[in-house]
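Case study 2.
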Amino acid sequence: MRTIDKYILKNHITPYLFGFSIITFIFIMDFLYRYLDLFIGKGINFLVAMEFFILSLGHMFALIIPMSVMPATLMAFGQLAADNEITAMKSSGISLYRIITPVLLASLILTGGLVWFNNYVLPESNHKLLGLMIDIGKMKPTIKIKENVFCKSVKGYTLLIQQKNDKTGAIKGVQIFQLDEEGIPVITIAEKGRMKYIKRKNLLQFELENGEIHKMPNPDDISTYRKTLFEHYTLNIQDSDRDLNRTKRNYRGDREMNIAMMKARIREINKEIDKSLERMHTIALPPIKKTFSRVLPQIFDSTATVVSKPTRGGKLHSPAEIKHRPETILSIKKALGKMENEIRVMEAKKSQISRYKVEIQKKYSIAFSCTIFILIGAPLALLSGKKGVTMAIGFSILLFVIYYIFLIGGEKLADRQYLAPWLAMWLPNILFSTLSIGLIHIVVNETKTINWKKINPLKQWRKKRIKTIL
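Prediction:
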């Protein structure tokens, strides 16, 4: 039996690596599509870009690893079924449960490894990646001046150049709009000149020829307008530092924490909620005592005379009298306002707790999906028959999309406290486990085989179309 187990596992390795490579390639293309413009616009060097990419692999692998399981299972078991090896195993008395046991044990090991990865590697990579993204965001973009296009890369300046030579730095038809130290607009126009960047001084220098400078200190007084002509004029623009300055972040979001950190944070928030409840009690008690001491003084004053009925001349006050006392109404309104603020703070803190609990459950549920996809993929491949492997792989992609939609939707509902965090994150696993049980039951009892041609909507539509034409 050990030989069969090794054989089955061996048949899964190549399809898994193939699926892993294809899905990784798709994620990398998406990464380049989203961040390539950022790297070019900010002038990021190759090493920093590679660091950014490697850190991004953390959250990529958290999805790629479970995503690769189902296509690998479908391809491996589909090939075994196509070669009649499954039939041979069944004729030898080996049940489906025994056939999928080695793959199931391997998926449990993969699940345990992914839980460790999600708890220790992923939070650190997310933390460093977010810090690097913030540092890159603070960088000044590389100045890119195009012909006949306004350039606003330098703060306080707008540049327009009609012609330029990138090799010599020669420029023609120069217009520079700027604000001086007092915020007064200054327009510099020149026929030609030369532009160069002095890196050691972090200076963008324009050597202009045959031009004029226009300035009007008081926009409301045209008599203040000044026009200065020049043959040679040098304009130095002190450019901000475009180098990447690395900083250290101490704050961590929920996706930058491991399970122990999040549990500790939940305990801290619960203590803050208890303090909010104590403050609400302190706020509410004085106006309550003040109001009831006027209505029922015998409760708060041991010397008060107990009167059976409220009287106008007695010590008891009617609710109407209390209601129309301005100081009483004001004190109650102030107390209610403070309590409403405390309630809003408590609701925000409860929402934080829910987000942390969701993230904790997500680390386990996504990892356990490796096992769920094995339980679905194996019977699905066997039910597809010899010619349904391609269709089954497409169906597996659809299943994963549905799984991901349930996961994201459940996370949103749990964050808004409509669903319990554990239920929101485990609901797709519960639904898919139920589906897998049904598929395994069909395979074990050999009740039927899925005919993908009959349920293919495109082929059904074509048949109806042909009948309509005939």
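The chain is about 65% helix and 10% strand.
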